[in-house]
Specification:
The protein has 167 residues and is of the alpha/beta class. It contains six helices and five strands, in the order βαβααβαβαβα. The chain is 39% helix and 14% strand.
């Protein structure tokens, strides 16, 4: 498959603070370094695509209107900080619903690749949990776990290094 390179991004705990089932736009807080990292990745030629499980919708804890307002604030905060994204894909299902879009399954990544013309094998997945890593690896992307010892600056360095090696 040929197409654009992308960095797939988890949202909660990766780009914004994870506050649980977020329903209030006032709770959106960017993680330090995230906007700068997105700007650097965009400048390096990557498409930036959020892929996020949002089971609060399926559980009835968050309304679609609340989820839309949170997403809008998230986008505004990123843009205000000099970052941005190309697209966002959300899985609204509960774990027991058996969908194929809930990470660790790769449905959201496949959907994005198909709709946006992305080359999954030249792409990356960045997240804060094992399900993010598993979803990225399932499509042949390289995955980075943001955890102790790996922050956004380290993630950008790894992506740049891996990209140079693949060129």
């Amino acid at each position: 498959m040929s197409g654009d390179r992308a960095v797939f991004l988890d949202r909660d705990g990766t780009l914004i603070d994870d506050v649980g089932y977020i329903s209030d736009p006032d709770d959106v807080r960017l993680i330090r370094g995230a906007a700068d990292a997105l700007r650097a990745l965009h400048d390096a030629g990557f498409r930036l695509v959020v892929v996020s499980n949002q089971s609060g919708l399926g559980r009835g804890l968050v309304t679609q209107e609340q989820a839309d307002a949170v997403h809008q604030r998230f986008v505004e905060e990123l843009e205000r900080a000099g970052g941005g994204i190309d697209a966002a894909y959300y899985c609204p299902h509960r774990p027991e619903d058996g969908c194929d879009c809930r990470k660790p399954l790769p449905g959201l990544l496949f959907d994005a690749a198909s709709e946006l013309g992305l080359d999954l094998e030249r792409s990356f997945m960045v997240g804060n949990s094992d399900v993010d890593v598993a979803a990225g690896e399932a499509v042949g992307a390289r995955a980075i776990l943001l955890a102790e010892g790996t922050d956004w600056s380290e993630a950008v360095r790894r992506i740049a290094s891996w990209s140079r090696q693949a060129a």
